[in-house]
Specification:
single chain; 9-stranded mixed sheet
């Protein structure tokens, strides 16, 4: 019996020592990967490529033939199936509501297209060439900035959004307020492959490589040091930028902070099984238990698997198909804003948005034919570089804001395995995945509070 006890003690001690050693190894930060800062992503060979470094004004101007053709497509007889009795958006986009949107799109929105196009041009737009790609961006300098500290801010959107997501928050950021010492100079690019920015022609263009392109953009514009804010893919890209370019990024703020560090994933698993273990009472309502999380993923992640594995197939189905494109994109503006909106006949689409704003976003994908190139980011996301970057600690001051109905959240315990300087962590009881459109004032105030806490 004594031998058995000694054996158990020794093996338990060895097991504990192995666990401690593995924890220590996983707790260490890996060095940031060394990426080619001039890697060519355009078509063909880079052998004869000469980059045009000029920054040129850009004006959104849509061919009248394209608008006429779109009107004709929206006027065709609809062959939609009736929704099941008593079903709203639970099976996807409700066909009755889709007919209402098509009618508004054709008979109201497109009739005032000149006005809508002028609205999209309300900010100063520019384009330049970086690493073989034509890059589009908005740049807005602050008003009445005398006596204020002007902070350059790279503002990043995600999928299925666009720069249109940011139109309501840009004026808040760039207008000086008497009560604040800070005002922002905003640079809001269309991500490569989205909108008017060219998509890569080569395999391997993941978010780390996009981070390189965007840092090169900021350097070209003369911003040696700057803040990054992003949601959705903009969050991943911003996080990669903070890991790769800490000498340039003075602050990282996000409304979708996620950590995929191995220890963070372990913490997430524990939290999913034991949601009350590490959360205060207020925060518990933001997080799902294991069964709820599993059910949610089964219900809402079909697009993710499809776009990660076959982006060109679904892209082909949606190209030159305005009705399908609208249904595919706008469904996300329903369920990602609040999952309970699935039970509403109109998907709750106009609870936080106007139809004009939603259709502006759809139109950007349609007129630039960018749905396929925008979805390829999913196929490139699971790269070896990304796995490495998840274990690179971020020392840049970081602010994380959660809006309750967003598609996912991470606890501070999870985030601190990666973000070692988390200076602000906030929770809001309303809002979802698109806060720059839904809650621009709240998002602006949170970003401003972060800047003050970080003393940037």
């Amino acid at each position: 019996m004594g031998f058995l006890v000694r054996f158990l003690v020794v093996t338990s001690s060895l097991g504990l020592a192995v666990l401690i050693q593995n924890y220590r190894l996983l707790s260490r930060s890996l060095p940031a990967p060394q990426l080619d800062l001039n890697e060519y992503w355009g078509p063909g060979s880079a052998e004869n490529y000469v980059e045009d470094t000029a920054v040129k004004p850009f004006n959104i101007k849509v061919n009248t033939e394209l608008i006429s053709d779109l009107k004709a497509q929206l006027s065709r007889p609809l062959k939609l199936h009736e929704p099941l009795e008593g079903v709203a958006f639970q099976y996807g986009f409700n066909s009755k509501e889709l007919q209402n949107i098509i009618k508004y799109w054709r008979d109201t929105y497109l009739r005032k297209w000149d006005e809508n196009e002028a609205f999209l041009n309300k900010f100063a737009h520019f384009e330049t060439q970086i690493q073989g790609l034509r890059m589009h961006f908005i740049q807005v300098k602050p008003k009445n900035a005398e006596g204020k500290k002007v902070l350059p801010l790279l503002l990043l959107h995600g999928w299925p959004g666009s720069v249109r997501e940011l139109y309501d928050i840009i004026p808040l950021l760039t207008t000086a307020k008497p009560e604040s010492e800070y005002v922002f100079e905003v640079i809001a690019p269309s991500l490569p492959g989205f909108g008017w920015s060219q998509g890569a022609s080569k395999v391997g263009f993941d978010t780390a490589r996009i981070a390189v392109v965007l840092n090169n953009l900021m350097q070209r514009l003369g911003y040696e040091k700057y803040i990054v804010h992003g949601g959705d893919w903009g969050a991943r890209i911003g996080s990669n930028m903070a890991a790769l370019f800490p000498q340039h990024i003075i602050g990282y703020h996000s409304n979708l902070c996620v950590a995929l560090h191995p220890l963070a994933l372990f913490s997430k698993a524990v939290r999913a099984w034991l949601p009350n273990f590490s959360l205060n009472l207020e925060q518990r309502t933001f997080f799902r238990n294991f069964s709820e999380e599993s059910a949610y993923l089964l219900e809402e992640s079909g697009y993710l698997h499809l776009q990660t594995t076959k982006p060109d197939t679904i892209g082909t189905a949606l190209t030159d198909n305005p009705i399908g494109l609208a249904a595919y994109i706008l469904e996300k503006f329903s369920t990602w804003t609040n999952p309970s909106f699935r039970k509403l006949p109109d998907g709750g689409l106009t609870k936080h948005f106007t139809l004009d704003a939603l259709l502006d976003n759809v139109m950007i994908y349609y007129i630039t034919n960018s749905i396929t190139t925008s979805q390829r980011i999913y196929a490139e996301a699971l790269s070896e570089t990304q796995t490495h970057l998840e274990r690179v600690h971020i020392l840049t001051p970081t602010g994380c804001v959660r809006f309750k109905w967003d598609i996912m959240h991470a606890t501070d315990n999870e985030l601190k395995h990666k973000y070692k300087n988390l200076v602000q962590s906030t929770f809001y009881s309303d809002g979802g995945h698109f806060p720059a459109m839904e809650k621009p004032q709240t998002l602006y105030e949170d970003l401003l509070a972060f800047v003050k806490k970080a003393a940037l």
